[in-house]
Amino acid sequence: MLAGDADRERAVNVLKDAFTEGRLTQPEYEDRVGLAYQARTYGELDEVTADIPRAVVPPAFLPQAPPYIPAPYMPMTAVPPGTNGQAIASLVCGIAAPFTGGMTSLPAIVLGHVARNRIRQTGQDGDGLALAGLILGYVEVVAFVMLIVAFIAFSPGP
Q1: Per-residue pLDDT tens over the stretch 36-59
Q2: Which pTM does this prediction carry?
Q3: Burial, 119: exposed, middle or buried (Cβ in 10 Å; 0-12, 13-18, 19+)?
């Protein structure tokens, strides 16, 4: 079969690739390009490029991996944990207990225990606040119980 100009150009491109890869010397490349342009059939073109290995083309259906884009540099700075809100609430309830007739002493105790547990888990600040809320809450409960016992002990009998 007769070869066309496009076929000759493809053969010359194969020769160019082989030359840039170092598979052909300059004089050999020039000789083969001349033979490729003079070739009239596919057989003559095949003779010019027969000993040059074909490039392996990966299948078109394989997706290429996306390019690697490194994450921007962010220095590792430790964010100081804040004060536990339940510890603050425990202290506030403990301080308010005498003014509320002991109504906030139980919430002070519950919030104090919950806050100390969370502080141990998260490393937040406020352990002293929670402890102070616990102490004030327990003092108020003990004072309230003593007040009830005193009323019972000193109340006139029937």
Answers
A1: 999 989 899 888 888 887 765 555
A2: 0.48
A3: buried
State the DSSP string of 21-87.
TTSS-HHHHHHHHHHHHH--BHHHHHHHHTTSPPPPPPPTTSPPPPPP-PPPP----PPPP-B-HHH
User: Which two structure tokens, joined as six digits, stand for 109?
Assistant: 């105790």
Q: Which amino acid is at 2?
A: L
Q: How far apart are CA 33 and CA 16, in angstroms?
A: 9
Q: Tell how far CA 110 is from the center of its chain.
A: 36
Find the distance separating the first CA and the last CA of the chain, reported in whole Å: 132
Dump pLDDT digits (tens) for 95-127. Answer: 999 899 889 999 999 999 999 999 999 888 999
Burial 67-105 (b: 16+ CB within 10 A, else e): eeeeeeeeeeeeeeeebbebbbbbbbbbebbeeeebebb
Amino acid at 105: S
